[in-house]
């Protein structure tokens, strides 16, 4: 009776099993296949919008915009003959002609939609191109005023077929004036803007990403 008790006192306690620590070998595993974002989600007529796109894998990219008036434009590539192959894992700023911002807001009010799509195979632009430029007569036949995302997806599907990844972001065009706020003696006119009816916005807009896999 006493022998087992003495042995239990003399033997060292069992070593607890090691708890595996979280692995950081692939921190970007949760990244969406493609993500698009704007510098701001509330714009005014005449504003120049900056835009970035990031895909996790190499592929062929097209970026479309349906403005608040229902007009559809191709933002990337600038011309159908330009290279639209992008490397995965790199943030790409979408630039307009001459290296300008992605687009200039020309509508007075309403909501616009930007859609970026990536395909693993080359995109076919022939249906939407004429004379080395985009044929906006063909693009304008899409009914983007009622369902902008559906109209843009229809165009991408005709370019890429049935297999592509895409993400979309919306913006609002406001006709309310923006007032700069006072932020201190040494920096009296700081960058953030005040939008009446929307509250105070500080810095760039960053929305939680949504992405879709079109299969």
Question: What would you note in describing this structure?
Answer:
This protein is mainly β. The chain has one domain (31-214). It has three helices and 17 strands. Strands 2, 5, 6, 7, 10, 13 and 17 form a seven-stranded mixed β-sheet that branches. The chain has a three-stranded antiparallel β-sheet with strand order 1-4-8, with no helix packed on it. The longest helix is centred in the C-terminal third of the chain and has 13 residues, at 148-160.
Summarize the structure.
The chain has 215 residues and is mainly beta. It has one domain.
Structural class: mainly beta
Which radius of gyration do the C-alpha atoms yield?
26 Å
Mean pLDDT: 77
- Spans of at least 5 consecutive residues whose pLDDT stays below 50 are 16-27, 180-211
Number of strands: 17
Beta-strand share of residues: 35-45%
Key words describing this protein structure:
12% helix, seven-stranded mixed sheet, three-stranded antiparallel sheet, mainly beta, 215 residues
């Amino acid at each position: 009776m006493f022998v087992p008790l003495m042995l239990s006192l003399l033997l060292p306690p069992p070593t607890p099993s090691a708890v595996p620590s979280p692995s950081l070998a692939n921190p970007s595993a949760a990244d969406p296949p493609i993500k698009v974002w704007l510098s701001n989600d509330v714009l005014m007529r005449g504003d120049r919008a900056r835009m970035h796109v990031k895909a996790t894998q190499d592929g062929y990219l097209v970026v479309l915009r349906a403005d608040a008036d229902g007009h559809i434009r191709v933002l990337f590539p600038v011309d159908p003959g330009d290279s639209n192959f992008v490397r995965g894992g790199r943030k790409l700023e979408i630039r307009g002609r001459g290296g300008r911002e992605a687009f200039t807001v020309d509508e007075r009010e309403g909501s616009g939609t930007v859609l970026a799509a990536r395909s693993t195979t080359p995109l076919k632009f022939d249906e939407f191109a004429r004379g080395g430029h985009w044929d906006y007569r063909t693009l304008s036949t899409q009914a983007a005023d009622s369902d902008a995302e559906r109209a843009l997806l229809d165009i991408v599907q005709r370019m890429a077929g049935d297999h592509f990844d895409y993400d979309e972001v919306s913006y609002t065009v406001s006709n309310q004036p923006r007032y700069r706020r006072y932020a201190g003696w040494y920096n009296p006119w700081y960058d953030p803007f005040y939008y009446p009816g929307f509250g105070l916005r500080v810095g760039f807009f960053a929305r939680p990403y949504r992405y879709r896999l079109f299969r």
